Amino acid sequence: MNDAYQQLLEATIQHLEDLKAHGTRFVSVTPELVSQLAAARKAPLRQASIPAAPAESKVREPGSQAKAGVARESLLALPGEVSTATSKPALAPEVKAAAFAELRQRALICRKCEHLASSRKNVVFGVGNIHADLMFVGEAPGADEDTQGEPFVGRAGELLTKIIEATGLKRSGVYIANILKCRPDTPGQTSGNRKPTPEEMQTCIPFLHEQIDLIRPKVLVGLGGTAIEGLLGKTAGIMRLRGNWQMYRGIPLMPTFHPAYVLRNQALSVKRQVWEDMLKVMEKLEMSISEKQRNFFLKAGN
Ligand code: URA
């Protein structure tokens, strides 16, 4: 079996396991595919490559797929092993890009929430660098995002872009996505947004889980209470959680205020808190922090 085929096969297995982990119980496949998979399963290669030591504990060169690690996880799920977003071997960049494109395609045609599918202009899947170390998660697209098909392009988005740039990063260097990929509908209203319902969040969240599993950012930033609720499944409240590291399946997650909240609440103390959270994120990512950055909001009276 050649390397490209092997990688695709492993990516497929990993992808199916991700779907299963996130609640998918059935996928449609052709009878031809079933027989090809059955043939591949009988091949002795993967069994033979199971390592004695856990593959996850080894440091890997980027792009060097630990084939044995995939095989071990796929075939021998050991009791008590916890699956985390980073416990699977990283995919080679081209395999990751292909898996991401396939995921995007599935999201773009999703009609699980028929009311949102019929009111949306666009599915707002996500934007940015799929190899980013830093990923931002927001709530749901608003009217501007729905029109343009890109998250955080309205006023809140402009502020988010400023925050990202203040760290020295570019918007295109991070990844930005939302809990919900469709704009929550507001029947009978000509303007305004609404919070996603728990059912909508539950239905859509598998897409975000898969995005995170593929991107494998080193740090996540959750923008606002809904993002944190969606990621952690808890409603402890953003006021209490912000600034305090949480964990999302092995990835450090920094909860901070949503940029729309910062826009509504012009108090400098709120801006300063968001910036303090971003300084923590920069430290976690071992980014260099200038004196100017460190002291942004430390002027007297702030
Ligand atoms: N608010 C969000 O949470 N997400 C967007 O994409 C835009 C505004």
| CATH architecture title | 3-Layer(aba) Sandwich
Small molecules in complex: uracil
Provide the succession of SSEs. Answer: HHHHHHEEHHEHEHHEEHHH
Structural class: alpha/beta
The outline comes out as globular
**Total domain modules:** 1
Counting DSSP E segments of at least 2 residues, the number of strands comes to 6
Mean pLDDT: 81
Distance between the termini: 63 Å
Question: What summary fits the major beta sheet?
Answer: 6 strands, mixed
Task: Chart the SSEs and their pairings.
Elements: H1 3-21, H2 31-42, H3 45-48, H4 67-75, H5 93-108, H6 114-119, E1 127-128, E2 134-138, H7 143-148, H8 155-166, E3 175-178, H9 198-215, E4 219-223, H10 225-232, H11 238-241, E5 246-248, E6 251-256, H12 259-264, H13 268-284, H14 291-294
Parallel strand pairs: 2-3, 2-4, 4-6
Antiparallel strand pairs: 1-3, 5-6
Helix pairs in contact: 1-4, 5-9
The structure holds uracil (URA).
Give a structural overview.
The protein has helices at residues 3-21, 31-42, 45-48, 67-75, 93-108, 114-119, 143-148, 155-166, 198-215, 225-232, 238-241, 259-264, 268-284, 291-294, and strands at 127-128, 134-138, 175-178, 219-223, 246-248, 251-256. Strands 1-3-2-4-6-5 form a 6-stranded mixed β-sheet, with helices on both faces. The protein is built from 14 helices and 6 strands. It is 47% helix and 8% strand. The protein has 302 residues and is an alpha/beta fold. The chain has a single domain (3-44, 70-294), classed as Uracil-DNA glycosylase-like domain (Uracil-DNA Glycosylase, subunit E, 3-Layer(aba) Sandwich), CATH 3.40.470.10. Residues 44-81 have low confidence and may be disordered. Helix 1 runs parallel beside helix 4 (67-75) and helix 5 (93-108) runs antiparallel to helix 9 (198-215). The protein starts with a helix and ends in an 8-residue tail after the last helix. The chain is globular. Bound molecules: uracil. Residues 138-142, 145, 151-152, 154, 156-157, 178, 260 line the site of uracil.
